[in-house]
Design brief:
Length: about 220
């Protein structure tokens, strides 16, 4: 299904050079919906091709022909893969990691999150993705993969040690201390240049948690026809 897309341009983009678009990188915004206005600000030096709102709205901010600034550069110890040039970035509005505080679970800004939006995954607490939002992400990823010729599979699928009993989300190495490359550099260096598919920011950048272990990868990489 072709998603219903609203275009709100970001000034933050650059040439793809001669890079071929071969991956879709998923993120969460770590905010409550401010990303669209932030990405319109040149001072942000950040952008994404798409932002998917909590109610399932899809906003496109950068033309697919251009490189959006969503994945930065991997650390010095990681392989230089220039992920922005060869990827489409999707930011999903979600607070991400929550902490247990007075009166319930809170975002890093201190805002309370309603109990029905709190989900425990991989031993920590996160804001649940909204169903309408997940449905929009599934449609958007499917449409992008079809129209850009990107295989709709986890980019590191089949990598030894990163699949367990065929369950994809179990293999996702989320928890790296900031500044440490660790497991992610193993992923990044794994014949990355020869592969195409879908991954999370956490898989290609050290110290990133997004889109979090609470994202149902099995719906995104194995679209029901
Ligand atoms: Zn990210």
């Amino acid at each position: 299904m072709i998603p219903d897309i609203k275009f709100i341009p970001s000034p933050n983009h650059s040439s793809r050079g001669d890079a071929e678009v071969r991956m879709v990188v998923l993120h969460y915004t770590a905010d409550g919906g401010g990303a669209v206005s932030w990405f319109q600000n040149p001072a942000a030096r950040a952008s994404s091709h798409f932002v998917v709102t909590r109610n399932g709205g899809v906003v496109q901010m950068v033309d697919l022909e251009r490189s959006a600034w969503h994945a930065g550069q991997p650390g010095r110890r990681a392989v230089d893969i220039k992920p922005n040039r060869s990827s489409v970035g999707i930011e999903i509005v979600n607070w991400g990691l929550l902490s247990r505080g007075r009166g319930g679970f809170r975002t890093y800004t201190g805002a309370l999150v309603p109990p029905d939006e709190v989900v425990k995954s991989a031993g920590r607490y996160w804001q649940r993705y909204a169903e309408a939002q997940l449905a929009a992400v599934v449609d958007l990823v499917g449409w992008l993969c079809d129209s850009l010729g990107i295989p709709q599979r986890f980019i590191f699928e089949g990598q030894p040690g990163f699949m367990r009993e065929g369950v994809l989300y179990d293999v996702v190495p989320y928890y790296l201390p900031a500044g440490r490359v660790g497991t992610n550099s193993r992923l990044a260096s794994w014949r990355f240049k020869d592969n195409a598919g879908i991954c999370g920011h956490c898989h290609i950048a050290a110290g990133k948690d997004d889109p979090g272990p609470h994202l149902p990868w099995e719906r995104i990489v194995c679209r029901e026809k």
